[in-house]
Amino acid sequence: MEYVLIHKNDNVKVCLADGHKYAVRHMEAGEPVIKYGFPIGVAAKEIAPGERVHTENLRTALSGVSSYTYAPQLSPLQPLAPATVQAFVRKDGRVGIRNDVWIIPTVGCVNGVAKTLAAKSGALCFAHPYGCSQLGDDLAVTQKTLAGLIRHPNAGGVLVLGLGCENNGVAAMKAVLGSYDETRIRFLNCQDCEDELAEGLRILAQLQALAAADRRTEVPVSRLKLGLKCGGSDGLSGITANPLCGRVTDRLVAMGGTAVLTEVPEMFGAEELLFSRCVSKAVFDKAVRLINDYKSYFLAHGQPVSENPSPGNKEGGITTLEEKSLGCVQKGGTAPVTDVLGYGDAAEKPGLSLLNGPGNDMVAVTNLAAAGCQLILFTTGRGTPLGAPVPTLKIATNAALAARKKSWIDFDAQTQTADDLFELLLATANGRETKNEANGFREIALFKDGVTL
To answer: What are residue 225's DSSP bridge partners?
Structure first.
């Protein structure tokens, strides 16, 4: 079998056939295990040369919140002449790479109506179970996330569908939205009309007529916002797919574009790599709060901060959260960290932004879409059919997955290059359909952390 030593300081090598790690020398119990040039935990017992290093002999070293010192190690990217894409320029100047009409419920009670309208009209419906019986910050997160989707530039028109008696009613959503294009964002309270289906179809027909008249125009790729996500990771994620995405991220940022990295728990153990790239002390302080607040969230619920990886991750060769995180953050390349975003915040600054949110696949892709990302690079070693409201390019870490799940996977990171992936990104922005779009797989899930009345 073929093995790779990722970094000269590593004391484990990775089998390219299955992603599992093997000791390259003897290790004593308590000794750091090094992969990617950084500790991924400590030896739980003595490990012999050539022995597999996994759950039976490796344990995490993560604990609670930590203190950090700002020690910037910034390596600015060399600017590149921007490529261009053909996209839809909206009234507010933002750019969309799709021109669909969306139906977004304010509350789960009208999901059935929304789905019926979608089936009859061809619009896209994004159902969810929330919007009522929520309080305080929990309700605010729902509202901000939905507002980000309602304003999304990939939508040529949006019907916001309310019931009429919910906490997150139409009036509340309008207040959160602020100013908006009233010709492209329309509202309907189902309790206020005799036939909500007829009225909804009438509004959708108007929105679809407006969208049909829209035309793509040439814009620089600096107008793109790229979401970065991994799901169903394996031991090859940090060797093939994630570094490949990192090189594409760097190329986009060097052209003036924006990339967004989320999955905060999957930064634990690798956070200092991101902290060292923060462009200012203010951004560093926000990034430290992002990490420590999320650790505190785990601890407040009586859970260890290291409760990760998943069973599938472990089967694929990932043992500790540190190991998973060091592979995960490589999607952000070497780009400078220019901003730290909360739930529902829009990504506005060129460079790499860190977005508050969990690693859960459905919540994370929704979070990225709500932040304004027009498309998402989603790496996977185990495979998943999941799609976001926006085009979601599935990037396989290994050729076997790409061959076995051709209906899910858009790109094979084991046999294709960063140039190939960047060209696919441009083609997708220009309208090339992704596998999730071809399959009709587009879902949302909202983060929930509060009292339900």
So the answer is: 258
